[in-house]
Amino acid sequence: MRCSNILMYHNISNGFDFSFRSISKDLLKKHIKSLYGNKIRFFTNEDIAQNTIFDGKDAVLITFDDAYEGVYNYALPVMEKYGVIGAVFIPAGYIGKFNSWDFSPFRGLKHMDKNMLINLSKKGWIIGSHGFNHVDLRKCSDKALKMEICDSKKLLEDLLGKRISLFAYPFGLYNKKVMDMVAECGYDYAFATATGIKRNRFAIRRMAVYFIDRSPLPLLNKKYCHMYLLRNRIVASFASLTPLYKRLFGIGKVQCQ
Ligand SMILES: [Zn+2]
Prior knowledge:
9 helices
């Protein structure tokens, strides 16, 4: 039994990038190599399509939140080499645009455009929804919540010509109402972060991977579970404060209406 079967990355950069949301392509390569070398199986597209990722299979899924261009440019070639697919979660309102919600003095990262998402999907990668505007979904009105969760699914399905079955909560924030809407909109699974519950299909726990992690193996190991969950909850709590910073400084739109 693992701490979690799902790894969560954000951006992949060309070189070293001192940011909690990026790791370099060389480090990602090292991670894939060590998983591969330890004979860890990876979930396939069929596992997802057949809705069997909780049927006791010991496999790992690599996920990338926010669908940044860096994932397309640098993660795709590395993972293709090892025959591994990933899952990316795109905020549907940010396709081809720059990130505007992260609290950073630097220019935001760019999200994949339509063609990149179509190409990834054709290569067997899983495209999931990350809502529409990357907002704290717990703060949404019923109407806005439906738009964030159901309409983003529809938009991606029209774009890719495929059923979208996965959702990831922006900032990992959710409550019962948000989970119920995910089920109502017809998703099979929804991913949280360290705040997730291991065996709840609408709040799946994921282990965030940072540039300080030289290997992903300890993150998956039950022995170190509490330590990494605590670390990841601390980092996530800073990320979830982003809407508050934004409100204080009056930048960007991160509040759900
Ligand atoms: Zn995100």
